[in-house]
Amino acid sequence: MGREPSYLAELVRINDALIWSHDRTDSFVAAVEIIRARMGARIAPTYLLDEAGNLLVLVADEPTRAELGPHFATMPAHEHIREPWINPGEWPVSASEHLEHDAWTSLPQDFKDWFGESGVVVSIHADGRHLGAVLLCFDGPWPLTDERKEFLAAAGRILGNAVYRWQVAGRERELGALEERRRLGDELHVDLSQQVAAIGLHAGVMDLDVAGGDLERLRSDVERLGELARTLSSSLRHQMLGLRSDAQAVSGPFDQLVRRHVESFERQFGIPVTLECEAGCDTSEVPLGVAAQLVRVLQEALANVHLHAQATRVRVRLLPSRTRIRLEIEDDGNGFDPTSVPDSRLGVRIMSERMQQVDGQVQFGRATGGGTRVTAEAPLRATRRTIPAEVGS
Questions:
Q1: What is the pLDDT of residues 255-265, one digit of tens each?
Q2: Which of 141, 177, 333, 359 could form a disulfide with 371 if both were Cys (CB 3.0 to 4.6 A apart)?
Q3: How far apart are CA 291 and CA 300, in angstroms?
Q4: Number of domains present in the structure of the chain
Q5: How far is it, in rounded angstroms, from Cα 294 to Cα 288?
Q6: How far apart are CA 12 and CA 35, in angstroms?
Q7: Which residues have C-beta within 8 Å of that of residue 308, sequence separation ≥ 6?
Q8: Confidence of residue 365 (pLDDT cuts 50, 70, 90)
Q9: 183 vs 174: CA distance, rounded Å
Q10: pLDDT for 180-226, tens place per residue?
Q11: Which tens digit of pLDDT belongs to each residue from 172-183?
Q12: Is the Cβ–Cβ distance between 311 and 333 less than 8 Å?
């Protein structure tokens, strides 16, 4: 009879599955399957936090998805990311030890039906960030021994390091795409100006042809003018597609859009947020492109509050003027030094790059209460750069 693999050997297999596969989803599911099989669980659905930190998104094979049903393709983060399931040490937690706790009794009954009273939450984490959890579901009682707890904690960290590595790579691609779109926007601005000038000059040449009675040259000039007009139309269509995409993502008055994001954050994470707006809160003059980038800065700042700040309250201020719009996000958390943030965290760079897209800027400082203040400011005039086609994708 063969010898059962050691926990250490299984951890090596998990790590190898995450490193060598070209498909991240398949490799992640394969790594979780190793954990499920070793622990003898019936199913092991895994949920990862989305970028905004509002939703837990299911990552699982098709049989597991079918058993859970479409209702559990996502779950609200605020129902599940709480103690004791999430703890400072990011240790795995068994539901059987907390059946009288509000964290269990307040869960939806349909969730408890498939998770079970012996279910185990295995935290996925890296770099001090909670990224999601593997939910081990058993057909009967299953004791979470110290040895199993240590194995699952190590497995959760290996999964977390892989997810975090993939997220960093995605943010790097986003930053590169922003920089490339800015370069293309500059080129497109010059190109459109040149095309309009060419049409104007060509119209002048046609006037000379008419005055000289040269109908043959005039016919040729009309054809050329048509070509110039079609080229200009194509360039304008390219810009309008980007604007239309932004219009779908950033719809309605800017102050109302900010209010919706603030209320959603407060509802999801239970962190009180005060929204203040001066000058009658008239944000009607905020251009679409500026609104799009400010909203993404707001989302990034609020996500940082949730993930890093350990704040108990947040204040968001809108400060519109006749020529500029300023957005301030201030928390009472532990604060941070932007110059000490490792290169692997690209949020600060991406916020700066987004504001540069609209000739604006973002600054980071210490709030009055000792937390962090993020200030993003941009002019209300039309900017010379184009709007990214995908806002925050």
A1: 888 888 888 88
A2: 333
A3: 14
A4: 3
A5: 10
A6: 12
A7: 128, 129, 333, 334, 336
A8: confident
A9: 14
A10: 566 555 555 555 666 676 677 767 777 776 777 777 777 787 877 77
A11: 666 655 665 665
A12: yes
Cβ-based neighbours of 179, under 8 Å, separated by 6 or more: 353
SS3 46: strand
Query: What's the pLDDT at 392?
Result: 35
Within 13 Å, how many C-alpha atoms sit on residue 60's CB side? Answer: 25
Indicate the pTM of the whole model: 0.56
Instruction: Write down the pLDDT at residue 329.
Output: 94
Same domain, 150 and 210: no
Identify whether 386 is part of a domain. no
Among 121, 140, 171, give the residue marking a domain's end. Answer: 171
Tell whether 241 and 313 lie within a shared domain: no
Q: Are residues 166 and 179 in the same domain?
A: no
Residue 393: the pLDDT is 36
Q: What is the pLDDT of residue 388?
A: 32
Final residue belonging to a domain, choices 148, 171, 194: 171
Is 233 inside any structural domain?
yes
Are the beta carbons of 161 and 129 closer than 8 angstroms? no
Q: Are residues 53 and 137 both part of a single domain?
A: yes
Q: Which residue range is the domain that position 219 belongs to?
A: 174-247
Residue 1 inside a domain? The answer is: no
Is there a single domain that holds both residue 206 and residue 81? no
Backbone angles phi, psi at 346, to 5 degrees: -100, 5
Cα–Cα dist 66/58, whole Å: 12
